[in-house]
Amino acid sequence: MFVGKSITSYVSGHDITDYISLNEAKYQNNIETSNTAYDVELTTALKAAFTMVEAWVGYSIRKANVKYAYSGLLSNGEIRVYSKVHSVTSVKYLDENEDEQDIEAKYQLWDSLGLTIYVTGSAATLSKSETNYVVNFVEGYDISKGVGNTESQVFPVALKQAILMLTSLYFTNRQPVAFGGNPQEIPLTYQALISPYQITKFT
Predict the structure, then answer these.
(1) How far is CA 139 from CA 25, 46, 109, in A?
(2) Residues 48 and 148 occupy one common structural domain
(3) Stretch 117-144: mean pLDDT
(4) Who has greater pLDDT, 46 or 145?
(5) DSSP state of 151
(6) Nearest partner of 92 among 152, 135, 60, judged by Cα
(7) Host domain of residue 149
(8) Conformation bin of residue 180: beta by default, left when phi > 0, alpha when psi is -120 to 50
(9) Distance CA 37, CA 45 (A)
(10) Could you tell me if residue 5 is inside a domain?
(11) Residue 148: what pLDDT?
């Protein structure tokens, strides 16, 4: 069962403004690039919009080193990681002292469905239902297509557009924005852009 996650660090060169520049946000808001009067407010709106979309999709859009914790394995000895997994760093289990220990594992990476890990190692102290596991991996999107990257690993245009639209909304209103009675509800305009990249299952 999925217990929780933490971001240990962001990969160098993958800050928010590396994905969407301040000038792109200015263009979205009909501001001349030479006009610096609103740089602080616009940068704040951009970062807020980026964070909001990350919350909606359920993982870090920025390329980051992350740690996911799981309690026990599924009945078939699997761990299922629901995220935008870029690459796997390590799979470990926690011993009786709560220290991370290596364990043999194979995994299958799925472009849109995350990651399935097959724990193949065994030890006398391990129990499928009681042992805690930690999966360390790189999550998120690359800024542009580079050597060894597939198209699905590159920052999607649809997510970029959703972030730019939200940036305009936050920058223009500069006050709390209500989308409707349900604070978790995503407006249809954004939903159409974001939903293909959204992951909400954490079994």
Answers:
(1) 25, 21, 12
(2) yes
(3) 76
(4) 46
(5) G
(6) 135
(7) 10-61+144-178+185-197
(8) left
(9) 14
(10) no
(11) 60
Contact 170, 45 (CB under 8 A): yes
Say which DSSP state 186 is in: P
Element (H, E) at 192: helix 188-194
Arithmetic mean of pLDDT over the chain: 83
Which residue reads 């890990």 in tokens?
117
Residue 33 sits in the same domain as residue 77? no
**Cα 31 to the chain's mean position, in Å?**
30
Q: What is the pLDDT of residue 113?
A: 63
Report d(CA 41, CA 47) in Å as an integer: 10
Residue 29: pLDDT above 60?
A: yes
The residue ranges of DSSP E strands in 85-130, in sequence order, are 85-94, 100-102, 105-110, 114-119
Tell me which H or E stretch contains 52. Answer: helix 39-57
Residue 53 has pLDDT above 80, yes or no: yes
Is there a single domain that holds both residue 118 and residue 23?
A: no
Question: What's the CA gap between 179 and 166, in Å, rounded?
Answer: 12
Same domain, 43 and 17: yes
Q: CA 170, CA 167: separation in Å to the nearest integer? A: 5
Residue 126 counted as domain residue = yes
